[in-house]
Amino acid sequence: MSSLRSSLLACMLLTGALIAQTAPQKPELAQSADLAKSDETNDMEALRRWLRDKRMISIKELGGDLSLSAEVRTEFQAINETSQAQGGGPTIRQRGNGAPLPNKASNPKSMYAWDVELNLMLDYRTDRSWAAARLEFDNDMGQQTGTFNKIRLEKAYLGGRLIAGDTFTMDSELGRRFLFDVYDSKIEFSSVFDGFLIRLSKAFEEIGDYYMLPGVFLINDITNHYGWAIEIGGLKVAHTGLNLKYSLIDWYRPGGVNISGNTATQTAALQLRYKYLISQLQAQYLMYPQWLGNRLIKMYAAALTNHLASGLPITRGERESWGGYAGVSIGVTKKKGDWSLDVNYQIVQAQAVPEFDANGIGRGNALGLGFYTQYNDGSGVINTSPTQPVGATNFQGFALNSLYAVTDNLTVQQSYQMSWTLNQNIGPNLNYKQYELELIYAF
User: Fold this and answer.
1) What is the model's pTM?
2) Which of 19, 20, 21, 394 is most buried, by CB atoms within 10 Å?
3) Shared domain check, 262 and 389
């Protein structure tokens, strides 16, 4: 606050001095101007000293812990995606040379893709406060098809502990991260979380550890559109391996997408893109059997529904609001020689989650076609026929993911996933398969 007052004082004094120089000055006015200049000089020197000294303070003097880490990733993907019009017809390849062009693109999507990625992570923590940041540099490889300028700020937030009790804590955090960094799901929460979060946790000796994560986030500052979410959970319920989690997220606000210049039809379509109030209930069970070398086995299942879904012409009047998944994970990868494996099945109806927040296997959708609008960014004409919708939902499929730590730093990740259309009366029939191999060096 003192620095703010000093800066404001310096600005006012400087302005006064400049005004005084534009007119003939009486002796007493000139004397006052000299005094003002002297005060200004002293004040600015104090400000410069404060900034210089602030830069010289070390992390050791501040008393916190600073960590800098990074990952270098090299990734190969092989993707096969085909589309067939509703009711039959030729099967059209969606990727590779000769495939149709995606929205706003001059080349088709690749069947085989190579990426190089660098992630920089910075964390600072004291006893009662912390800050975290993550920069991602994710670029395509290739002398002709390579890119050099893809960078994004994935994480930047600050936090503090408001209450630090023996069995109860309350934290608050403000800034950016992804929804999946806070809330747990395999088929939603892929959007950015630019907002405010409260973390509440309470430990009970007899019945386990419980938490609540309420948060509010910005969707569109032009139309004053905000969303909110909350997750409530119990861990090690009754001192067993059972975890229970319930989440609720609200994307909808009437009028939240009323952008100046849009027609009534465009506004109605955008309203549908955000007409989602989603509940998810998830159960997990963790155990460490001796016959598997005391490795972790986690079995999990979840179901969700969109409470605001309704029958529309593009869904043939049907309400397509449900989704879910079930799977099992084995092992945890932390050091050389560790391995882990996860396999899960996913099923997602057409209106279960918004296409911009879908976090599951998806449909590939190389052309970037939307569910309510022509394109999945909300642009283009409005979809009115049940033969048009695509998006990232209306699928079922399975995913397999494995990790193996070659050294303490180098990890090999492999994954395979495939999906096919769930309701063939909505949109074209898409079949999607993807294999991925990734080398990750962390330091």
Assistant:
1) 0.85
2) 394
3) yes
Higher pLDDT, 10 or 242: 242
Better-predicted residue by pLDDT, 363 or 31 = 363
For the domain that residue 358 is a member of, what is the CATH number?
A: 2.40.160
Q: Which residues pair with 232 in a beta bridge?
A: 212, 246
Q: Could you tell me if 301 and 378 lie in one domain?
A: yes
Please say which residue of 35, 55, 75 terminates a domain. 55
Residues 131, 227: one domain?
Answer: yes
The tens digit of pLDDT for each residue in 48-72 reads: 776 666 555 666 666 689 999 999 9
Label residue 1 by pLDDT band (50, 70, 90). Answer: very low
Q: Are residues 85 and 126 in the same domain?
A: yes
Count of domains forming the chain: 2
Show which of 38, 55, 72 is a domain's final residue. 55
> Does 43 share its domain with 78?
no
Evaluate if residue 76 carries a pLDDT over 50.
yes
Q: What is the pLDDT of residues 378-394, one digit of tens each?
A: 888 899 999 999 999 99
For position 54, what pLDDT does the model report?
56
pLDDT tens per residue, range 117-131: 999 999 999 999 999
φ/ψ of residue 111, rounded to 5: -80, -30
| Residue type at 159 in one-letter notation | G
